[in-house]
Amino acid sequence: MTALTLSTAAVPGLRADAIVIGVAKGSAAKSQGPVVAPGAESVDQAYDGRLAGVLETLGASGAEGEVTKLPAPAGFKAPLVVAVGLGAQPGKDSGYGTEALRKAAGVAARALAGSKKAAFALPLTDAADAGAVAEGVLLGAYSFDAYKDNGDSAKNGKSGKGPLAEAALLGGKPRDKAYKAAVERATAVAEELNRARDLINTPPNDLDPEAFAAVALTAAKEHGIKVQVLDEKALTKGGYGGILGVGAGSAAGPRLVKLSYTSSRAKKHLALVGKGITYDSGGISLKPAGHNETMKCDMSGAAAVFAAVVAAARLGLEVNVTGWLALAENMPSGSATRPGDVLRMFSGKTVEVLNTDAEGRLVLADALWAASQEKPDAIVDVATLTGAMVLALGNRTFGIMANDDAFRSAVHEAAEEAGEPAWQMPLPEHLRKGMDSATADIANMGERMGGGLVAGLFLREFVGEGITWAHIDIAGPAFNEGGPFGYTPKGGTGSAVRTLVRLAERAASGDLV
Q1: Which long-range contacts (CB under 8 A, 24 or more apart) does 402-405 make?
Q2: pLDDT digits (tens, 9 = 90+) for 365-401
Q3: pTM attached to this predicted model
Q4: For residue range 3-25, what is the model confidence (pLDDT) as tens digits?
Q5: Sign of CA dihedral 499, 504, 509, 513
Q6: Mind telling me the catalytic residues?
């Protein structure tokens, strides 16, 4: 992880590999070029007030995600200036916004891979801005190199550049309690989010349910979290038919992991449930060619829940948070669940399995019912659940469904505050009939159109009566198959971690619903 410091040092005399400054888009109405953002005044002065013109000559516009590098002016200890686009220039009395700063810091950190130290002179108006820049740096600098040859980089066609080693946040008021707390929070959240990314990126031959459970056990011991792991024997004794049914075809047995963080001052209890399919072949309903290659990411929901519980513990939030990781590998074999089989779930309900590739809802159903037995104030499940949600919302936005309108809005607000694109989705009652089964209490498939909503309706059947619940479908943003952008890398993204942490913070402050 990149080391973070708050600094009040003057930019010209600061020893670093680069100085990062912000540039915004000028007003089109006035035909202006890029505008140098606050924080870079000393750099602009060293260019005799002509920095914006120099950047425009180099092709800079201030657009979001844009990076322009130029030699530092004479007299500066740092040899390089990195101008990063902030997007539209804000109004006179408003700042750039935490998400714009988070993205700009992430882009710059990634552009400076291999550097020992960079000074970030981005516009900071308060502690929240400092926290956003810190978070952006730590998330943007992320890389997953565990499986790359550490030998001859040139021979292997790799750059061999490690992440930015150190970042100094200028204007950060190192003695101010609010600024220090903001950076400490950003560090805890980003480190756990990056741990979730590592899990998502780990090949499935090294991360089966047992291995995932072992990672959770180690982290739980480190951070004072109680943990319980149910193996195949315990799951069979308990009657967890959904988790067992999905894992029946794999040589790697399923697990249900319960992580419990408790605070002596807690007044609320938030339960988080994560889908943890460590590899999804589709089972007997095998996925077609071209759809299997990234299915190591089908445990992203469990990774998000795991990271959020650990982050809550590290932050010492005054709320009880219980995480349920429903872990299984969905494989085809002679012992696998078949289309047409009926599973008896932990709740006692029976489910006719019409499609074994609709497996996530089966493991979640058992975990939701288990979470319901503790009567938490609210349950939130997170899952890479349906391709239908990707079709509806694209690759960068997750959908939110709930059995309570106010809570659905609260989850959406938490996502917006965290900087994660999300959209509220309905649970139309007329779609429930499509899951009626002549053989069992319910089928695991319904109407094809609105498939993401059908999945939400299925999950609702396994939430305890009177318990507030929300479902987050991260099928789109959980795994980035394209190029990196902002602070988001290629591969596992850690989607929903920040939303869950923000929701836990709201619960701690008494603002859960």
Answers
A1: 402/427, 402/468, 402/469, 402/470, 402/471, 403/427, 403/460, 403/463, 403/468, 403/469, 403/470, 404/468, 404/469, 404/470, 404/513
A2: 999 999 999 999 999 999 999 999 999 999 999 999 9
A3: 0.96
A4: 999 999 999 999 999 999 999 99
A5: positive
A6: 287, 361
